[in-house]
């Protein structure tokens, strides 16, 4: 299963960006989808996750500013980022976990995939 993320860029503090990430491949079901970020010299941290039923979880640092959503018909997850701060600057990675068809069979296997990352830069 492949994930492709879009929407990063340069924005001034206080501005907004919307990230999207589409999953493709032999997908049977996607359970959790999420966004993580990695600032220069730091570890990759959770930003937000969403289950197939729509339950969400956010890092304390983004609560009230970021909103995660998903379109299950399109296997796509979104991250609406408002009131951006310079400390939000990072490479943002999407993640998906679920079940996929094993190539050329009807057997199922669990998967966990990462997108390629998209850079978000917030200037002060």
Tell me about this structure.
With 124 residues, the chain is an all-beta fold. It is 0% helix and 61% strand. The chain has no helices and 11 strands. It has strands spanning 2-6, 9-12, 17-24, 27-38, 44-50, 56-58, 66-71, 76-81, 90-101, 108-114, 118-123. Strands 2, 4, 5, 6, 9, 10 and 11 form a 7-stranded mixed beta sheet that branches. Strands 1-3-8-7 form a 4-stranded antiparallel beta sheet, with no helix packed on it. The termini are far apart. The model has no long low-confidence stretch (mean pLDDT 96).
What topology emerges from the helices and strands here?
Layout: E1 2-6, E2 9-12, E3 17-24, E4 27-38, E5 44-50, E6 56-58, E7 66-71, E8 76-81, E9 90-101, E10 108-114, E11 118-123
Parallel strand pairs: 2-11
Antiparallel strand pairs: 1-3, 3-8, 4-5, 4-9, 5-6, 7-8, 9-10, 9-11
Characteristics:
four-stranded antiparallel β-sheet
| Tally of helical runs | 0
Order of helices and strands: EEEEEEEEEEE
Classify the secondary structure makeup into a structural class.
mainly beta
What is the overall shape? elongated
Q: Which band does the percent of strand residues land in?
A: over 45%
Distance between the termini: 37 Å
